Amino acid sequence: MMLSQNFSLEELTKSSTALRKGIINEPDEEQLYSLRVLAETILQPIRNHYSIPFAVSSGFRSHELSAAIGSSSNSQHGCNNPGEAAADFEVPGISNMDLCYYIKSVLNFDQLILECFTPGQPNSGWVHCSISELPRKELLTFDRTQGYRKGLLDK
Question: What is the DSSP string of 110-146?
């Protein structure tokens, strides 16, 4: 099932952990609706803007999958709250910092996190972007030594 022109439900629910552990990672109807909104309002506009195919490295996570990978039960990846969904991704050849600045300036997101980015290595880390019915436009940077910090930081 296609959620947008270039993104399928299969892509947004794919998980090697779920496959390995035999976990069913399928959204219900409400979660499916949120994933469609994520694909249409975040992922597809990025694909259209850069004209570069890219894959989602982490999309929807069922409660069982979230527990199996040690993810928060409140993660927007789990679509626990109506109207919320999240994806982690990179666009090949585009700096993750530049990708964040594009998203920040053009798209209506809830949370945008530059994760595990290393200055001087433009394609290090990845981008996390979520949607919500009441978007906060929250900007964060995450690294394993300092944790979450407010803003898009390259240091």
Answer: SEEEEES-BTTBTTSSEEEEEE-SS---EEEEEETTT
Say if residues 98 and 122 touch (Cβ distance below 8 Å). yes
Alpha helices in the chain (DSSP H): 9-13, 16-21, 29-38, 44-50, 63-69, 96-106
The CA distance from 3 to 11, in Å, is 10
Pairing between strand 85-89 and 126-131? antiparallel
Pairing status of strand 138-143 against strand 147-150: antiparallel
Whether this prediction's pTM lies above 0.90 is answered by yes
CB 52 within 8 A of CB 91: yes
Q: Are 129 and 111 in contact (CB under 8 A)?
A: yes
Residue-wise pLDDT tens digits, 118-140: 988 988 999 999 999 999 999 99
